[in-house]
Write a structure and sequence with these properties.
Accepts electrons from ETF and reduces ubiquinone. The chain has 274 residues and is α+β, with helices and mostly antiparallel strands. The protein has five helices and 15 strands. It has two domains: 4-38 and 138-232, 2-Layer Sandwich (D-Amino Acid Oxidase, Chain A, domain 2), CATH 3.30.9.90; 65-101 and 106-134 and 236-273, FAD/NAD(P)-binding domain, CATH 3.50.50.60.
């Protein structure tokens, strides 16, 4: 999955809908430089990692979500229960279709549900893991993949911006990455602490794409996929305790983020390795 090394790294402050100031490299903190990194598709990486895991004997159950944690008589986590299948919108069993959830028991269970996982929240409360941590902060990230004109494509280009269409009261930032095969990933991250009750993250994303810094790459292109997700962004001070009897929280369930490097996937994976 490592096919696109970073070749150029640009950071802009967007002043308004038309103007932008490019930050000279010598003003950019060393931690924010991406020289030596790769631009990847996280989906492709996860699929590749799944193949490596299965080759080592790991069993993966796609389509079966964990419903709740299992506890023994001493309050130690002993695994999870998957959700029931074949139920109606009220949770009642459908005749001939109902299949109860399975118990998956383990000596040690790692919870990697993503940002604000429902079991993770229960474990935080039950074991008081976040009693000594600051309150977690959250954002919403919107992302699209575009197929662009080959003449406008610069494979290996990384662009980050701050400023317009957001401001100090409604903070956030953006990214634009040039992948292989004339594809560009573009996204906007908006803190969920925004003070303007009329602000629409989706509409702000549409405005952002019309800025000349972004438009120059997307114009004439075609959007081929899109998505959005919640992001934990409290950083080091908001990290709860990681381990508890019988298991641990990892990744975004834990709230890992290297704020100085604008990296979330890296510490999420590292938490699993550790």
């Amino acid at each position: 999955p490592l096919n696109t090394p970073v070749k150029r790294d640009d950071i802009y402050v967007l002043r308004d809908a038309e103007k932008a100031q490019k930050i000279p490299d010598f003003f950019v903190p060393k931690t924010m430089h991406n020289h030596g990194n790769y631009i990847i598709s996280l989906g492709n990486l996860c699929r590749w990692l799944a193949q490596q895991a299965e080759n080592l004997g790991v069993e993966i159950y796609p389509g079966f979500a964990a419903q709740e944690a299992l506890f023994d008589e001493n309050g130690v986590v002993r695994g999870i229960v998957t959700g029931d299948l074949g139920v109606d919108r009220e949770g009642n069993p459908k005749e001939g279709l109902y299949t109860p959830g399975m118990e998956l028991r383990a000596k040690y269970t790692l919870f990697a549900e993503g940002c604000r996982g429902h079991i993770g929240k229960q474990l935080l409360k039950r074991f008081k893991l976040d009693d000594e941590a600051d309150v977690q902060h959250y954002a919403i990230g919107l992302k699209e993949i575009w197929e662009v004109d080959p003449a406008k494509h610069e494979q290996g280009l990384v662009v980050h911006t701050a400023g317009w269409p957001l401001d100090d009261d409604n903070p956030g930032g953006s990214f634009l990455y040039h992948l292989e095969n004339n594809q560009v990933v573009v996204g906007l991250i908006i803190d969920l602490s925004y003070s303007n009750p009329y602000l629409s993250p989706f509409d702000e994303f549409q405005r952002y794409k019309h800025h000349p810094v972004v438009k120059q790459y997307l114009e004439g292109g075609k959007r081929i996929s899109y998505g959005a997700r919640a992001i934990a962004k409290g950083g080091l001070n908001s990290l709860p305790k990681m381990v508890f009897p019988g298991g641990a929280l990892i990744g975004c369930d834990l709230g890992t983020l290297n704020f100085a490097k604008i990296k979330g996937s890296h510490p999420a994976m590292k938490s699993g390795v550790l």
